[in-house]
Design goal:
Elements lengths: L3 H4 L5 E2 L2 E7 L7 E6 L4 E5 L11 H12 L11 E6 L5 E5 L5 E2 H7 L4 H20 L12 E5 L4 E5 L4 H12 L18 H4 L6 H17 L9 H10 L5 H4 L8 H10 L11 H13 L8
Antiparallel strand pairs: 1-2, 2-3, 3-4, 4-6, 5-6, 7-8, 8-9
Length: about 300
C-alpha cells in the first residue's frame, strides 16, 4: 500500500475528485480541499485504510459505520456527503467545505463577547442534540472542531467530525495503530472529561463537559486548567477544583448567577451532576443569555 502522503497531494485525482491543497497543517490524515468533476468544492479526509496484509478487512468493517454518519443532518453539523474506498484501500470521507474561521481563531483574536459565547454555545448544543439522539458521541470536541461560517452580521456554527474519533478508536482496537492513515490521536487534554481521563465509558455528557470547557474559555480567554504538561491537565480534570470565575475575571460584568451556574454544572466531575442532555444545557444557556441584557451591545 502506498504511503498516505502519496495519496493526498495536490493535483492527485481520487475518483471524481481532484486534490487542491491541504486545509490546515497538511498532515496525511488531515483535511484536504478537493474539487469534483463539476467544479464543486469539498473537503476530504481519509482516517483509516486497509493494511498490506489485511486485504479489505478494515474498510469492509468500517465502511458501513462511516456511511451511517451521512444520516447526521442538522444545520449546526458539517454534513458528510459521500463515503467510498478508493483503489488503494483508503476510506475517503467527502464533506462540506466551510469557508470561514474556527472557534480557536475567534478566541485567540479576543473578539468573542459574552453574548456571542452563549449564541455559539447554543448552536453547538443544537448540533450535539441531533447527533446524540442518533447515538453518536463526538469525544474530541474542541475549538478547532467548531467552524464559524459568516452570515449577515453573525456566524453560523458547524460542528465538525462527529463520529470520526470513535471510528478511529474502534479501528485501533480491532486492527491496531497501523489501520490509521496518521498517528494515533487522543482528545486534547484541555477538553477531556474526567471519565475520559480515567479510561471509562463515554456518553453524551462527555461532550457536554467539553462544551462547558469551551464556554469557560470563550468567557475568560483561557481554559479551566493550565499546565504545560498534558498529564497534569488531565489529572486536574479528575481531581482539581473547578476554577472560580470571579477569581479568573474579577469584576467582569457578565458574572451573573445563571452564567456561573451554567459553567459550574457543565464542569462537574461526576457526570451525574452535569446536564444530562443537550436540551437541559440549552435551557441553562438561554437563562445565561437572558441575564446579560444589562451589557452594552457587542
Amino acid at each position: 500500500m502506498p504511503a498516505v502522503s502519496e495519496m493526498l497531494k495536490p493535483d492527485l485525482q481520487i475518483g471524481r475528485y481532484r486534490v487542491l491543497h491541504a486545509l490546515g497543517r497538511g498532515k496525511p490524515d488531515g483535511l484536504w480541499a478537493v474539487v469534483d468533476n463539476e467544479g464543486r468544492h469539498w473537503a476530504m479526509r481519509s482516517p483509516i485504510a486497509d493494511l498490506d496484509d489485511s486485504g479489505t478487512a478494515i474498510t469492509d468493517r468500517f465502511l458501513p459505520d462511516a456511511m451511517a454518519l451521512k444520516s447526521l443532518v442538522h444545520m449546526n453539523l458539517v454534513p458528510l456527503f459521500e463515503v467510498f474506498v478508493n483503489q488503494q484501500g483508503y476510506l475517503c470521507l467527502v464533506m462540506e467545505r466551510i469557508v470561514g474561521r474556527n472557534l480557536r481563531a475567534a478566541i485567540e483574536a479576543g473578539n468573542v463577547g459574552p453574548r456571542a459565547a452563549m449564541i455559539i454555545a447554543r448552536q453547538i448544543l443544537e448540533g450535539c442534540s441531533t447527533a446524540h439522539a442518533a447515538g453518536r458521541v463526538h469525544v474530541s470536541m474542541q475549538p478547532s472542531k467548531i467552524l464559524l461560517f459568516p452570515m449577515q452580521g453573525w456566524e453560523l456554527v458547524k460542528v465538525a467530525e462527529f463520529g470520526l474519533a470513535t471510528l478511529r478508536e474502534e479501528a485501533v482496537l480491532e486492527f491496531g495503530n497501523d489501520a490509521l492513515t496518521g498517528a494515533s490521536k487522543k482528545p486534547a487534554a484541555a477538553y477531556m472529561a474526567p471519565e475520559q481521563v480515567r479510561g471509562r465509558s463515554v456518553d453524551a455528557r462527555t461532550d457536554l463537559y467539553a462544551v462547558g470547557t469551551m464556554v469557560f474559555e470563550m468567557l475568560t480567554g483561557r481554559v479551566p486548567y493550565l499546565d504545560s504538561d498534558p498529564q497534569n491537565v488531565m489529572q486536574q480534570h479528575v481531581s482539581g477544583r473547578i476554577p472560580v470565575l470571579e477569581d479568573v475575571t474579577p469584576g467582569a460584568r457578565w458574572l451573573t448567577p445563571p452564567v456561573k451556574d451554567l459553567v459550574n454544572r457543565a464542569l462537574a466531575k461526576d457526570r451525574e451532576e452535569r446536564f444530562q442532555n443537550a436540551s437541559q444545557m440549552i435551557q441553562a444557556v438561554e437563562a445565561a443569555f437572558g441575564s446579560l441584557q444589562h451589557l452594552p451591545p457587542e
